[in-house]
Amino acid sequence: MESTNLFIIFLTGLTTGGLTCLALQGGLLTSVIAKREEKLVSTLASSKKKIKAIIARNEVTRQPARPAGGSTSTQFLPVVSFLTSKLLVHTLLGFFLGLLGTTISLSPVTRGWLEVFIGIYLFGIAGNLLHLHPLFRYFVITPPKFLAKLAKNESKSNSIFAPALLGLMTIFLPCAVTQAMEVVAIGTGNPLYGAAIMFAFVLGTSPTFLIFGFLLNQGAGWFRKYFPTIAATGMFGMSIFSINGGAGLMGSPYTIQNFWEAATTGTSSTTDNNTAVLGNNIQTATITAFDSGYSPRNITLKQSIPAKIKIVTNRVSSCARAFVIPALNISKLLPSTGETIVEFTPTRTGPLAFSCSMGMYTGRFNIIN
User: Where are the transmembrane segments (predicted)?
Assistant: First the structure.
């Protein structure tokens, strides 16, 4: 696992990770910035002397009055505070996950249930954003009362402490991609490398949040108005993606990929279907892993005959490197380039699913008599 490329992890955060995390956590940052601006407006409105002083100063210097929201640098402080605390807490999380990985390992089925749970949670958050039903308000996680009271009692440092507190709380709101990175951190079995993985990933997500904060701070009314709808749409999509990935990790044949394949090629199609080669008391097959999945995706095996599956990789950097057979609790981290042997004996007929560690790329062994 330590051969995992930190730069690839950074790029994952910069692209899909940033968007999915923003869909789930952007509402937290929005509320903090909105409340801070309301406080500034209220303070200026209640202090006529300060307003007159600002007007007088502007007349002397012949500069236009600044908006009540404050300077750009001041407006960015909540965003920086949020991201800094988020980066620190996830780096610490990576350290402890790497430490945890020295003693335990999550099974593919367990990871699948986690993805399904996160998918359901994403759906609930999206429903709450759109006010679809009062039931969805129970999906919103609020900080403990003592932390909320502590933040409220802060005076001068309140505007910085509040977003920092919510940045720390993002550890309890992982998106599907963050969860995948946490699994990778556990798989390292190395506290320092686990910390490095989470640091690289969260650092990659930061530019997306900075752009988001910039749009909010520039007073883009349209952005504030439509962001809940945009975020909810993204979360609905990620909910389907997460549940589908979880189903794939649990070995379920009922995934979007399989439905799409059946609809486009027909259930009787033999496309991308290979039969294992029978030898002396053993059957062999070869699977090639690509960044976009596996080929072939359907392999026919004989029941009760030991199988030896060779998996070939060539400069693979996606999650296809993490090859799992959920029903057999088999999990292999493939090298970026090389060959890996997976051995097992099919004990019953029917489909036996395999997939990547996120359930995105799937395939199956068809076990026959």
Answer: 6-29, 87-106, 118-140, 160-181, 193-216
